[in-house]
Design brief:
By secondary structure, the chain is an alpha+beta fold. The chain folds into two domains: 76 residues, no CATH class; 110 residues. Helix content is 38%, strand content 21%. The protein contains seven helices and nine strands, in the order H-H-E-E-E-E-H-E-H-H-E-E-E-E-H-H. The chain has a five-stranded antiparallel β-sheet. It has a four-stranded antiparallel β-sheet with strand order 1-2-3-4, with helices on one face. Helix 1 packs parallel to helix 3 and helix 5 crosses helix 7. The longest helix is centred in the C-terminal third of the chain and has 19 residues. The chain is globular and about 55 Å long. It starts with 5 loop residues before the first helix and ends in a 9-residue tail after the last helix.
Length: 210
């Protein structure tokens, strides 16, 4: 029998945690969950995921690529940490201003914001189409919004560099994000979003970012 990695062991524990949940209460907390047969379905960036209600196994309905450890953890932790009555506030803030995020802010700046700027530096024209492939929208000439989950949207800004200035980026979240998921999971959400975004654009993300 193949030995499970520590990551897979952790994911297995979360799968079992999901199976012990009151799934109807979960659906009331997360209206974006769609019950279809024995599945709970939701969108994570550009992929529709299906969680088997009997086994807890997560699969993808929109492509045949495996569902990574990070994506599975994003789903399981969303289910676990979402608070009853959690609602979007409409107040957009940088990661560092989210509740309890300050210890992780410097690493997030380097690994997410700076990595986004570096990946699209000189390739800003590729960003709008990549955002659209992830079911995102363009808000202004330089800002976009991506649906990490329906309840956890992510806004990004990008300004390409020139001879004098390096490319610049920012990432913003609704202030309510920690009401839906543990703040450390916002980091893995950003990681998955940047991975999918650069892949959709045909670019490389620095894998040392996270």
């Amino acid at each position: 029998m193949e030995k499970l990695s520590n990551y897979e062991k952790q994911c297995e524990q979360w799968r079992l945690t999901f199976l012990a949940m009151d799934q109807e209460a979960l659906r009331r907390k997360l209206p974006e969950l769609e019950a279809v047969g024995n599945q709970l379905r939701l969108w994570h960036f550009g992929r529709q995921l299906a969680v088997d209600r009997c086994s807890g196994v997560i699969s993808c309905l929109t492509d045949d690529r495996p569902v990574s450890y990070g994506v599975r953890m994003n789903v399981y932790t969303l289910f676990h940490y979402c608070a009853p009555g959690a609602r979007l506030t409409g107040e957009w803030v940088p990661f560092r201003d989210l509740r309890h995020a300050s210890p992780f802010a410097p690493a997030f700046q380097r690994g997410a914001v700076d990595a986004l700027a570096a990946a699209f530096s000189g390739h800003g024209e590729l960003l709008p189409a990549a955002v659209e492939r992830l079911r995102g929208v363009r808000l202004t000439a330089n800002t976009f919004q991506l649906p990490a989950f329906a309840c956890i949207p992510m806004r990004l800004g990008f300004w390409d560099g020139d001879e004098e200035f390096h490319a610049q980026a920012n990432l913003l979240f609704d202030r309510s994000a920690p009401d839906f998921i543990h703040v450390e999971s916002v980091v893995t959400i950003a990681s998955e979003g940047l991975r999918q975004l650069t892949e959709a654009a045909g670019l490389e993300l620095d894998r040392r970012a996270f």
